[in-house]
Amino acid sequence: MNLVAAFSxxxxxxxxxxxxxxxxxxxxxxxxxxxxxxxxxxxxxSAKGFLLVANKGDHTLGIIDPESCRQVxxxxxxxxTGHEVAASVDGRRAFVPIYGNSGVGHAGTDxxxxxxxxxxxxxxxxxxxxxxxxxxxxxxVNPKTGLLYITTxxxxxxxxxxPQTLKIIGTIPTSQPxxxxxxxTRDGRRGYTxxxxxxTVSALDLEAKxxxxxxxxxxxxxxxxxxxxxRWVFTSDxxxxxxxxxxTASNKVKGWVAMSGTGYGTAPTPNGRWLVVALPGVNKVAAxxxxxxxxxxxxxxxxxxxxxxxRPDGAxxxxxxxxxxxxxxIDLQNWKVDKLIDAGPGADGLAWxxx
Length: 355
Known about the structure:
2 domains
């Protein structure tokens, strides 16, 4: 809005949180002060929620209050064990796939369940049984349809679940084993899986339920995320300290970002400027400038950083640190660790549940 023009007309309209305010005869200073107040209210509103963390070591889902920076509750998963978590759109429930007792590609038990946890009652209120051991791992809610997608590794697929009925309503092949992590575009039409053992990424048409392309990355790859404009897919080469940048228009690797250590979890900032990358081998977090595609900042964090979640207001990034039983809170204005939150052993998957 052009504030000078609005002031010269002695009135303007401001829309905030669904209320229309008609403002007349105000000074420019008053208008600016009101806009600043609206900005603060919007930032505060977008920060309201709970941080969820999958504590692999004690098989619990942790609930963290971001205001007090304390883990205020843990819920037993009744299974070994959840690695990842997703929150329902309304923030009332959490979905925790029960993967098994090993890491991807290693011998161990093959999970076949997903637990549904009521975050207010703080207990399991539902279970999805996949019918056989499929190692369900990463849960993602489609931002447009609200459907729930779960990577089901041993079936080389992504399973589609109705989150209301908890019924399996379809599967999407990945054509690759060890489809470990999934990212979904903001229009809900495309999905990308990081296939660990083959070192590939599968590009999926979620509506047609088919593979569009298989993109070679390296001998092994891990984790995956999308830029906020859905132009780029990012996944971490596990054989070299570099990050693959995939062009979603061509479904080909466009370039590489050199890192000081092997990357793992990644997450973009809401303004589209930065990609925050966990570097577990060197106990750091890197900030990649997406304009230059180069690392601009590095921050020391506790041992074995795993997953990154940027809070919806873009003010901080949360980084789960597996070996330290902590979640690091990174201030994205000064690129420093602001706080350390005690979580559970094996802290890994993160999700944001709105309030």
